[in-house]
Amino acid sequence: MPQEQYTHHRSAMPGSEGPQVYKVGIYGWRKRCLYFFVLFLMILILVNLAMTIWILKVMNFTIDGMGNLRITEKGLKLEGDSEFLQPLYAKEIQSRPGNALYFKSARNVTVNILNDQTKVLTQLITGPKAVEAYGKKFEVKTVSGKLLFSADDNEVVVGAERLRVLGAEGTVFPKSIETPNVRADPFKELR
C-alpha cells in the first residue's frame, strides 16, 4: 500500500516549527492481519478449486452427462450396471439392441400400472416363491396375437387348438363340461 502523506501548515499558531506530516494508511499489526486474511482467502479459493476439479474428475462429469448417465435427445441413457435405492419412474425402459434387459432383486420385482390419480390398476409381482398378477383380466397371447389363455372374474378361456392334461390323476370337473370332442391318446382307452 502506498503511503500517502499530507502536509499541513500551521501559520496561525505561534511557535510552530514548520509543516507537520500525518501518515494515512494501515500500519503495524493491522497490516499483518489484513495480509494474513488475504493469504488465507487465496489458499481457501485454491483448495476449493482443486476439490471441485477432483470431484468433476472422479464423478466423470462431461458435457454429455455424469459417469454412465448420458443426456441424449430422447432422454437419459444409462450404460452399464446400475442400482436404484428408491422407486424408479419412467415412461420407457429398454436395453441396447441385441442385449437382454435384466432386473435383479434380493426379494422381489414389482411392476405397477397407475392411473392419473396414482391408484394401482394392474400389478405384477415376481417373488422368490411365486409370480402374482393382479388386474381385471389376465391374457397370454402368441407372437402373432392369437389368444392362448385368458382369465377374468367371469370366465377362464383356453384358446389353444388342443388342451392336454398331464397330471397322473387326470382332471376333475365338479360341474358339467361341454366339448365337441373327447378322445384318448392313440392305443389308449378313454375312461
Automatic annotation (TrEMBL):
Listed GO biological process terms: cardiac muscle tissue development; heart contraction
Entries under InterPro entries matching the protein: Sarcoglycan, Sarcoglycan_gamma/delta/zeta
Keywords: Cell membrane, Cytoplasm, Cytoskeleton, Disulfide bond, Glycoprotein, Membrane, Signal-anchor, Transmembrane, Transmembrane helix
Cellular localization per UniProt: Cell membrane, Sarcolemma; Cytoplasm, Cytoskeleton
GO cellular component: cytoskeleton; sarcoglycan complex; sarcolemma
Pfam families: Sarcoglycan_1
Membrane topology: Single-pass type II membrane protein
Transmembrane segments: 33-56
Entry keyword Cell membrane: yes
Family note: Belongs to the sarcoglycan beta/delta/gamma/zeta family.
Protein known as: Delta-sarcoglycan
Lineage: Eukaryota, Metazoa, Chordata, Craniata, Vertebrata
